[in-house]
Fold this sequence. Notes:
Layout: H1 11-36, E1 47-57, E2 70-76, E3 79-82, E4 93-102, E5 110-119, E6 122-132, E7 160-163, E8 176-183, H2 191-201
Antiparallel strand pairs: 1-4, 1-8, 2-3, 2-5, 5-6, 7-8
Amino acid sequence: MPVLVKADETPENNWLIDGFDIYIKQITKTLHLFSNTHFDPITMSENIIRVGILNAKNLAAADNTGFSDPYVVMRVNHKKYKTKAIKQTLDPVWDAHFDTKVSPKKTPTLLSFTVWDKDTFGRDFLGEVTIPFKNIFDRNNQGVSDGVPRNYKDPSNYEAYFQLAKRSEKNNVSGDLCLKFGILEDHIGDVKRYADAWELLNP
Length: 203
């Protein structure tokens, strides 16, 4: 006489049930992991890099008064950003910042910063700084080269001074430009997250 077996007790159905249980456990574990690490799509979409042009010190004098009217032009990804001109000073404070979107398909190669003296009829060159994009975080740890990307608002993310360079020996150039770089988010995230995102931008 054949033995009657319930439908859900066949070997095939037991295998399906076991497989479904494993799948549910994996999903639960993954969601728990994401919730513990504050997962978000920063590593998979566009990121915003904030660039701070804070101040300069000991600039060259371009005017007969012994001072300059300096401003900065930043170029990145074929876009141009400009600070306001500060009148009659060699130690201007701009406290300006500009945001630029970057992604694995739209990563700039260089960031250039040119300091100019504003004149009524033209401008005078006061120096420039050029930084490879992949190196913008090299000096954000109080001048120490650790290369760790950080949130712009992170208290441990510091500005750094960069020496202004000449274009030719005839240029009257001196002083340093103070810059700050950071990933822009409302909340300061884990440094590991930013490092993963940075690696995608700079493979």
